[in-house]
Amino acid sequence: MKKTLAILLAAILVLGCMSFASAEAKTYKVGVSIYQYTDNFMTLYRNEIENYFKTLETDDVKYEITMADGKNDMAEQTNQVRNFITQGMDVIILNLVQTSSADAVIDEIVAAGIPLVLINREPLAYDADGKTLDESYAGILDNPTVCYVGADARQSGTYQGEMIRDLDNKGDINGDGKVSYIMIEGDPENIDAQYRTEFSVKALTDAGIEVECLDDQVGNWDQTKGQELCANALSKYGDKVEVVFCNNDGMALGAETAIIAAGRKVGEDIYLVGVDALPEAIDLIKEGNMTGTVLNDHIGQSHAAVDVAVKLLNGEKIDNYYWVNYVKIDKAYAEANY
Ligand code: BGC
Questions:
Q1: Do 171 and 231 fall within a single domain?
Q2: Same domain membership, residue 288 and residue 159
Q3: 11 C-alpha to center of ligand 1: Å?
Q4: 85-131 pLDDT per residue, tens
Q5: What CATH number should be reported for the domain holding residue 138?
């Protein structure tokens, strides 16, 4: 009898402790949708979101991440967001497929009472003629539980142009008084592509350098497409091409393959710049096969996005915009820092 009582008491104690522990540990459900998993840069970014959430876990707080691939399809991503709402996510982190759908998506998430962190693709304000306004977007500004975390792409474009401007020959390899370039653009709906295209060239013209655009094509951030477009331009314009501007490193890696195949040599008869600082691009810069890139800080951006998501989970007040700086990376910088 005594023994049974002892076992019973021990069982009550163990059960009591267990329920005490589980009452303490809180698991937050986080829904993340990325516009497309095959994107090189967004792969680094999304992996770091998961890693960083893990480092913030304690005995008392856990984060259950559900990550989804938007497959570059807005309808697919809208379904994912609706599933997140049905599953009762505590916060959503969203890398939009189409920023033009921002209003509709934000409305649904806000109506469901779920805080939202938009990343990487900034929704924009437009005027009545469809012109981009240099103003914050109402869908973000009007909602205290919605914010955007990103980098100002004007800065990255300017840095690309400055790396060419600062070369001894200022990018004018054949000495004809102008810099003849080709531009390989990312998704044209993306402000990063628009600003990098504009500001890379502006850095040259602002310095009084004459420019000539030989070719300007859309490579949609894609390496294979970057290679194809660069190969075509090199076979069409040959030695005339002095500078290849790529809106990202993915396309620059493709362009570099095309440059080698055309028997050209970066730093001697052509220059090549990208954006992102993918590890492969850093290697090429150190070897002298790429002129430079611009660090698109996926660590800083993913950490800022997770930190603000945690603030929202804690019911803290947040800002509507969080900006992370770009860093210019030429050969000297790459050698000293990587
Ligand atoms: C990056 C690109 C990437 C794009 C995705 C940009 O900021 O530079 O590499 O493809 O974001 O939206």
A1: yes
A2: yes
A3: 56
A4: 999 999 999 999 999 899 999 999 999 999 999 999 999 887 777 77
A5: 3.40.50.2300
Rounded Cα distance between 30 and 309, Å, is: 9
Q: Tell me the residue range of the domain where 283 lies.
A: 154-295
> pLDDT tens, 256-273?
999 999 999 999 999 999
Q: Which residues line ligand 1 (CB under 6 A)?
A: 39, 41-42, 120-121, 186, 190, 192, 221, 248, 250, 275-276, 296
Prediction pTM value: 0.90
Check if the beta carbon of residue 35 is closer than 8 Å to that of residue 72. Answer: yes
The Å distance, Cα 186 to ligand 1 centre, comes to 8
Which amino acid, residue 208? Answer: G
Å from CA of 47 to ligand 1 middle: 15
Per-residue pLDDT of 162-189, as tens digits, reads: 999 999 999 999 999 999 999 999 999 8
Domain tally, the chain: 2
Q: Using N-to-C axis directions, what is the helix angle for 249-261 and 40-55, rounded to 10°? A: 140
Ligand 1 centre to CA of 187 (Å) is: 9
CA 294 to chain centre: 12
